[in-house]
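Hi V.,

You were right to ask for the full record rather than a summary. Here it is.
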Amino acid sequence: MPYDPMIVKPMKAELTAVGFEELLTPNDVDLAVKRPGTALVVVNSVCGCAAGGARPGVALAVKHEVKPDHLFTVFAGQDLEAVQRMREYFPGQPPSSPSIALLRDGELVGFMPRHAIEGNMPESIASALINAFDKICAKQAA
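Predicted structure:
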């Protein structure tokens, strides 16, 4: 049974307030992943490491000059079918929430599972993401 929407609303708002698009259905996920370019995907969660590390770290990272073309989020324990579909785009990665994925043209190119988030400060998570953005999302000179 999914979490009460009123409980997760402020947790979802932490990401939508900084530009993330909520994906609520499997169709939303499929359409989003088909968009060309780079995408940062946050599998959001009610857990403490999402509140203390993942969401604040991601919010810091997306302030960086170089960032993905698209920002997407699904909520584990709430948008069950959307989360399941999104995880299908993370081949070789076991289910993990929270988690942060970086896609390029629909292909997984970076993944930060819960164990890489848990116990880390937001600044550390942001730094790792910014390094990935600089390597993967920077536009190539013509």
